[in-house]
Amino acid sequence: MKKGLKLLAAISVAAFAITGCSANSGGGSSDTLKIGLAAPLSGASAQDGESIKKGVELAIKLANDAGGIDGKQLSLTALDDKGDPKEATNVANKLASDKSVLAVVGHFNSSATLAGAPVYNRNKIVEVSPGSSSPKVTDAGDYTFRVITTDAFQGEFVAKWTKEEGLNKVAILYEQTDYGVGLADVYQKAAEANGIQIVASEAYTAGQTKDFASVLTKIKEKQPNAIFIGGLYNEAALIAKQAKQQGIQVPFLGVDALFSDALIKLGGDAVEGFLIPGFFNPNSDAAETKKFVDAYKAAHNSDPGTYAAYAFDATNIIIESIKKNGADREKIQQYMSSLKGFKGATGVNDFDEKGDVLKNPEKLIVKDGKFQPYKK
Asked: What is the DSSP string of 87-123?
């Protein structure tokens, strides 16, 4: 059975008790086809949540402008999980118990995705995450998919890149969440396998830690020649600025969670030289990327962020599944389980047997105040 459903059985029973309803196919006879959104629309990750919401709304708008599906228009039910696992469970129950909701885009935070997964699995409704990259999500259940690659993949990719740059003494700073802990763990293992010495590994509290002075002092004493950040751009910008104040002048590396213009806006010249893999290049010549970027700019008069692009792809994959296999929860899952070659704004999407997406990133560097392709 895919994704370790047996391990989640006990949790699923509890989730079933909360929902108070049996699994249903969804859809009904409504004149609209409803997609759910579960995202952090408030809290520490609210900026990403709003970006995700805009990506979902744009995908639905374009589909409706093109005539909808079989004469029916698409609609959105958006709920705020606040980036909190407990609230994510509540949101998952609300969406799953609404028989008209066919599938869900979400959650963003890995801990929220993991909390909601038993509910979605019990009710046989797909969730497609635009931002949960924790390795634990791989085994979250048959109905959990994601359009972002795993931390295991990205950690190994960045570790190899670290070695290629000749950086052999690295300090790790990571957020104390499922996402941060998992990312730090896979990067450390991959780095050590590549002959890289991890000289320090320090945690911080996402959304709360503002002063990194003492942690950076410890790291400075270890004399690393690079720092890996396992977290989001908010803290990464603060870390870079405070490291510069302490005279720490080493390359910073991270994964695509840092690939946001907000990193540069918040960090300024302190984030110059950051090395990051990216799956969404707004300047790409790829047809699907250009279509998304042009439509987003027309709708919002601003450039789209990475998570808007991921959410756009997640929504379009759901829409494609409905078109190809029908407005039915189980049929959507069946179609997505064998999805290959779906061209989106973030690249070509293939799902493996675990619901993890397979695609390759581009190496990027922050140079002259913007993300640019990296050339050694």
From this structure: HHHHHHHHHHH-TTEEEEEE-SSHHHHHHHHHHHHHT
Q: Which CATH number fits domain 152-278: 3.40.50.2300, 3.90.1300.10, 3.40.50.300, 3.30.360.10?
A: 3.40.50.2300
Domain definitions of the chain by residue range: 2-149+285-358, 152-278
What b/e readout covers 170-184, taking b as 16+ CB neighbours within 10 angstroms? bbbbbbebbbbbbbb
- For the chain, give me the number of helices (H) and strands (E)? 12, 15
With respect to CATH, is domain 2-149+285-358 assigned 3.40.50.300?
A: no
Q: In this predicted structure, which of 10-24, 288-302, 321-335 has the lowest mean pLDDT?
A: 10-24
Say whether 152-278 and 2-149+285-358 share the same fold: yes
How many residues are recorded in the chain?
A: 376
| pLDDT tens-digit readout, 166-199 | 999 999 999 998 889 989 999 999 999 999 999 9
Q: Cα–Cα distance between 115 and 8 in angstroms, integer?
A: 11
For residue 351, the one-letter residue type is F
pLDDT number for residue 260? 86
Give the closest residue to 364 by CA, choosing from 235, 271, 295, 267: 271
